[in-house]
Amino acid sequence: MNSPLPLKKTLGDKELTVMMASLMALNALAIDSMLPAFPAIVGNLSLANPNSIQYIISIFLAGTGIGALIHGPLSDRYGRKPILLIATVGAALFSLACSLSTSFEMLLAMRFCHGLMAAAMGVLVISVIRDQFEGDAMARRMSTIFLIFMIVPIIAPTIGQFVLLFAGWRTIFDLMAFMALMAAGWVYYRLPETLHPENVIPIEPHALAKAWTKVVTNRNAAGYMIGAGIVQGALFGYLNSSPQLFDEVFNAADFFTIGFAIVALGIAASNFTNSKIVERFGARRVSQTALISFIILGSLQVAAAEFAPTSLPLFLALLTANMAMVGFIGSNFSSIAMTPFGDVAGAASSFQSFVKTLLAAGIGAAIGQQFDGSVLPVAAGFLVCGLVALALVLWCEKGLLFTRPGTTPKIPNNPRG
Asked: Where is the Major facilitator superfamily (MFS) profile domain positioned along the sequence (predicted)?
């Protein structure tokens, strides 16, 4: 691996981490701040099927998945900073276009374009961190980034609800545009270029195909990449259904922002914990333990859906615990999948984000569209996704869990000499 380029004296490790987390947080804001506005949009745009409103989330995620294929190769050729600048300004413009939409179809089209631009704020964050760190050190910083990033899902629905007290749902998109422009200014003035000159890759179809082939044919990278997308799909299934769950199942629409924040705290707490323990125990041991716990909790969610279907406290307790497992799984699976690709970090990260996001968006949309007035589709989604992800991990590790590659096991003394 080439030595990382030194950061400017004015931009230390901590500011870099906060900046990257803030860029990722714009995507969370673009999703979660809209959730309280779902009923208003349904009424204002006259949607016949209330479940259709969930496509506002799914189409944005589809855009981020496809956009990941674009921004990664561009950043490998032209650098991380210029692509981030173009993307953040583009996200602001399309967010404004969303606020001006006169039909649901137009809103979905602008949301897709918004997602195409916003994709850079996910894939290039990983590339920038990979330019500077690798292995468990990368996992620790990614976990810290996810921790800061997770503050936004805790407060974003409240921000959206607050805006709705004084203005319409379109103003939420205006706010997103303003924040994207602020982020662009921060990147312009403070972020140095982190791409090493020796790692510049021309935009050539065969070069991209070669990088993507490396990801697909690497057993660990492919398995952990797909596993991360499947687990995230369960999360998106809940996210798509969340306003309807609180309103129609638990008759607690007024409690939505508080309940959503409680669940998000589970992921924030796990990412904080992960940042403290991952370098000690290793990304595999932590994430695989969390995945097994995820399956157990998913089983309990299905049982609760059957025997206590309208208990909001039980629903929140189990969901928050399982969301915490998602926090342990996500950043560590991503770090494991990226470890072999320091020389093609942008192309590898973009392809992995493309696969993970489209897979998660598809699974989340499928789970969300199954909403039938009960919590069972969401609960079953967690359990099934966990089991499939475990099967993939077992395939990756050839049946051996809780290993830590790169460490030398201690061999006990042989008493017989």
From this structure: 16-398
Contact 314, 304 (CB under 8 A): yes
Domain that holds residue 107: 13-191+202-396
Residues 144-164 have pLDDT tens digits of 787 677 678 888 999 999 999
How many domains does the chain contain in total? 1
**Across 47-51, 234-238, 324-328, least confident range:** 47-51
Domain annotation covers residue 21? yes
110 backbone dihedrals φ, ψ, rounded to 5°: -70, -35
pTM of this structure: 0.81
CA nearest neighbour of 42 among 171, 177, 169, 174: 169
Mean pLDDT of the chain, nearest integer = 87
Q: What is the DSSP string of 254-304?
A: GGHHHHHHHHHHHHHHHHHHHHHHHHHH-HHHHHHHHHHHHHHHHHHHHHH
What would the two tokens of residue 361 be?
Answer: 């968006």
> What is the CATH number for 24?
1.20.1250.20
